[in-house]
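Priority: medium. Attachment 1 of 2:
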C-alpha cells in the first residue's frame, strides 16, 4: 500500500518506519475502504482533486461525472441498490450546492448516501473574509440531510466517517453530509496511530425487532378484515424483504399493490397483484397493510376520493396496519390503528410467526371482485397496446419495451418523465426486486443518467433508461460518462418535442416558442455518437425493438431516439389534478 507519506524516514513509503506518517487524504481513503466502500461518485477540483487521484491509486473505483447533481443521484441510488451508503465527492461551494439536490432527494426517498464536500478555511469562512469558494456548507446542508458532520482534525476522520455511515443506513436511511475542510487533507499524523483511529463500523443497520404486542394488535385487525389489501413500498425493496413479503402475500392470500419502486418485489405477473385494479381496491379495502410505504401524495395521503371518501379530505373508513422502521411515520396523514415498528424483514417474520400455518384466506367475494376488475383492465390494456399506432405513441413504443424487459428480467430499468414515467410504470412489468428505479417521492427530473451509471456499475447488469425528452435534458451531458466508462446503458428517449407534448403555442402569439415546446425533430442520438457510442433513430416499433435489443446484446452505450406523436402526451402525465389551474377545473 502506498498510503504512507514519509517525510523523515529514509525508507520513504515504508509502513514499518517508526517515523512513518499518514495524511488526511489517506486516512479518508482507508476509512472508506475499511467500511467496504469501494466506489466514489464525484467531480474533482480544489480541494478534492488529489483525493480522487489517490483514491483511484489505492484501488477505489472513482466515477467522475460532468455535473455533481448526477454524481449525487448516482451515489444515492447506489445506496438504495446495495444497502451501503453511496458516496458522492464534490468541491466546495458551487460543487457542494450542485450535489445538494441529490442529498435532499436521498433524504426524502430514504436512500443512504454520504455527500462529502471539500470546504474552505473555517477561520475565513466564519469571519466572512472572502475565501476561495467561501460558504458555510455545514449549516446549509443540515436541514436537507438526515445528519451533517464536520471533521477538523486528522485523528477524528475515523469517527467522522463511522458516524456518517451509521447515520446514513441505520433506522430510516437518508442523506448525510460530511464536511472536510481543505486543511484536513494535508494534516499528517503518525501512521500507526492514524490507522488505529479508524473505525470499522459494526452492525451499521441493526435489525429492529417489533414489539410482540404491536404484532398481536396488527394480527387482530387483520383477522377481522373482509377486504384486506397489502401495499408494498420501496422501503420493502430497500430492506431486501422479498422472501418474507412473498410468504406473507401467499400464505394470507391477500391482494397487493406495489408502489413503483416496489414493482418486481413479487413478479408483477403474480396472481395476487392488484396493480391493474388499483382504482378499485383502494376505495374498497377495509384493512390496509402498508409495508415500507408512506401515506404521502403518491397514496393520496390515505384519504379523499381515491380511498372512497366523499370529498377530497374525507377518510375513506379504512383501518391501517403500518410496518415501518420509523416510529414517527404512523399518524402522519390518517390514523394508523396498528403501527408495527421495526425492520421489514423482522416485522413480517413476526407477523408470519403469529399467524401460524392456518390463516384464513380473505372472503372469496373480495378476491373474485378484485380478479374480475384486474382481468378486465388487463384485457383493455392489451387491446390498446396491440394497436400499433403510427406515428408511435407511448403505448406502441412501450409495447416493445415491455416485451424486451420481460425477456431480460435481470436488466435494470431507469425511468423519468411525465407520460414517459406514468405509462412505463403501468405497462412494463418487472419480474425481480430492485430492478426499477425512478423519480421517487419527489417526482424529480434529472435522476436519469446518474441512476443509469450507478445501476450499471453496482449491478453489472445492462440498463434500459426510458426517458422523456425533457427529463433527459436534465442530465444529458452524462452520455459522455456512459461512453467514457463504456457502460451497458441503453437510453431510450421518448421524443415528443417537448415537456408533456410538443404542440403547445405561445399564448401571447409572439415568436418565442411555448415554454413547454422544444426544437422539433431534435436528433438526440447524435449526442451519443459524438462520444463514440451508438445512436439509433427509431420512428417505428420495429426500429425501436432492433435498437434496444442490439444495445442489450452488444452492451455498448446506446441512445435510441424514439419518435413519439407530439400530440400524444397529457399535461403532467397522470397528476394533472395537482396543477393549480387544473385543480379548479373539473377533471376529465
Ligand atoms: P413508496 O414511495 O414506495 O411508497 P416511501 O419512500 O414512501 O415508499 O416509504 C418507504 C418507507 O420505508 C419509509 O417510511 C421508511 O421509513 C421505510 N423503510 C425504509 N427502510 C426500511 C426498513 N429496512 N425497514 C422498515 N421500513 C423501512
Ligand atoms: C427538477 C417538472 C415534471 S415532468 C417534466 C417536468 C419538467 C418533464 C415532462 O416531459 P418529458 O416527458 O420528460 O418530455 P413526457 O413523456 O411527459 O413528454 N424540474 C424538476 N423536477 C420536476 N418534476 C419538474 C421540473 C416536470
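Attachment 2 of 2:
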Amino acid at each position: 500500500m502506498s498510503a504512507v507519506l514519509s517525510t523523515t524516514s529514509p525508507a520513504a513509503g515504508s509502513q514499518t518506519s517508526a517515523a512513518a506518517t499518514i495524511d488526511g487524504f489517506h486516512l479518508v481513503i482507508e476509512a472508506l475502504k475499511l467500511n467496504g466502500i469501494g466506489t466514489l461518485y464525484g467531480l474533482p477540483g480544489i480541494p478534492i482533486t488529489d483525493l480522487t487521484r489517490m483514491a483511484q491509486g489505492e484501488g477505489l473505483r472513482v466515477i467522475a461525472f460532468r455535473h455533481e447533481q448526477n454524481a449525487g443521484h448516482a451515489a444515492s441510488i447506489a445506496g438504495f441498490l446495495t444497502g451501503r451508503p453511496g458516496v458522492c465527492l464534490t468541491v466546495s461551494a458551487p460543487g457542494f450546492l450542485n450535489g445538494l439536490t441529490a442529498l435532499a432527494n436521498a433524504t426524502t426517498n430514504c436512500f443512504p448516501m454520504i455527500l462529502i464536500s471539500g470546504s474552505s478555511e473555517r477561520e475565513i469562512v466564519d469571519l466572512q473574509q472572502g475565501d476561495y469558494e467561501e460558504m458555510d456548507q455545514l449549516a446549509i446542508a443540515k436541514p436537507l440531510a438526515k445528519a451533517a458532520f464536520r471533521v477538523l482534525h486528522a485523528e477524528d476522520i475515523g469517527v467522522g466517517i463511522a458516524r456518517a455511515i451509521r447515520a446514513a443506513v441505520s433506522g430510516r436511511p437518508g442523506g448525510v453530509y460530511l464536511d472536510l475542510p481543505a486543511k484536513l487533507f494535508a494534516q499528517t499524523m503518525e501512521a500507526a496511530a492514524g490507522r488505529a483511529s479508524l473505525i470499522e463500523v459494526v452492525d451499521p443497520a441493526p435489525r429492529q425487532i417489533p414489539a410482540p404486542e404491536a404484532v398481536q394488535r396488527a394480527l387482530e385487525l387483520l383477522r377481522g378484515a373482509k377486504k384486506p389489501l397489502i401495499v408494498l413500498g420501496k422501503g420493502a425493496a430497500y430492506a431486501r424483504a422479498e422472501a418474507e413479503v412473498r410468504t406473507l402475500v401467499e400464505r394470507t392470500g391477500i391482494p397487493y399493490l406495489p408502489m413503483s419502486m416496489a414493482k418486481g418485489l413479487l413478479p408483477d405477473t403474480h396472481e395476487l397483484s392488484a396493480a391493474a385494479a388499483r382504482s378499485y381496491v383502494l376505495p374498497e379495502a377495509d384493512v390496509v397493510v402498508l409495508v415500507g410505504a408512506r401515506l404521502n401524495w403518491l397514496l393520496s395521503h390515505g384519504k379523499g376520493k381515491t380511498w372512497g371518501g366523499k370529498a377530497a379530505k374525507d377518510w375513506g373508513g379504512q383501518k391501517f396496519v403500518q410496518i415501518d422502521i420509523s416510529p414517527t411515520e404512523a399518524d402522519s396523514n390518517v390514523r394508523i390503528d396498528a403501527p408495527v415498528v421495526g425492520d421489514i424483514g423482522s416485522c413480517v417474520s413476526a407477523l408470519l410467526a403469529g399467524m401460524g400455518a392456518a390463516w384464513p384466506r380473505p372472503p372469496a367475494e373480495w378476491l373474485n371482485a378484485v380478479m374480475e376488475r384486474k382481468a378486465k383492465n388487463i384485457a383493455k390494456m392489451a387491446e390498446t397496446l396491440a394497436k400499433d399506432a403510427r406515428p408511435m405513441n407511448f403505448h406502441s413504443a412501450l409495447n416493445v419495451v415491455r416485451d424486451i424487459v420481460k425477456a431480460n428480467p435481470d436488466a435494470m430499468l431507469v425511468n423519468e418523465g411525465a407520460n414517459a414515467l406514468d405509462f412505463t410504470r403501468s405497462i412494463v412489468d418487472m419480474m425481480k426486486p430492485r430492478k426499477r428505479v425512478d423519480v421517487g417521492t419527489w417526482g424529480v427530473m434529472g435522476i436519469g443518467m446518474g441512476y443509469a451509471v450507478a445501476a450499471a456499475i453496482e449491478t453489472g447488469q445492462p440498463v434500459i433508461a426510458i426517458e422523456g425528452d425533457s427529463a433527459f435534458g436534465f442530465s444529458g451531458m452524462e452520455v459522455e460518462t456512459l461512453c467514457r466508462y463504456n457502460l451497458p446503458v441503453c437510453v431510450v428517449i421518448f421524443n415528443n418535442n417537448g415537456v408533456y407534448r410538443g404542440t403547445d403555442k405561445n399564448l401571447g402569439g409572439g415568436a418565442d416558442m411555448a415554454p413547454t415546446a422544444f426544437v422539433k425533430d431534435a436528433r438526440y442520438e447524435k449526442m451519443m455518437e459524438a462520444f463514440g457510442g451508438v445512436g439509433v433513430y427509431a420512428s417505428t416499433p420495429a426500429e425501436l425493438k432492433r435498437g434496444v435489443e442490439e444495445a442489450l446484446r452488444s452492451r455498448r452505450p446506446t441512445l435510441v431516439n424514439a419518435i413519439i406523436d407530439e400530440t400524444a402526451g397529457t399535461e403532467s402525465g397522470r397528476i394533472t389534478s395537482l396543477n393549480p389551474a387544473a385543480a379548479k377545473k373539473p377533471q376529465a
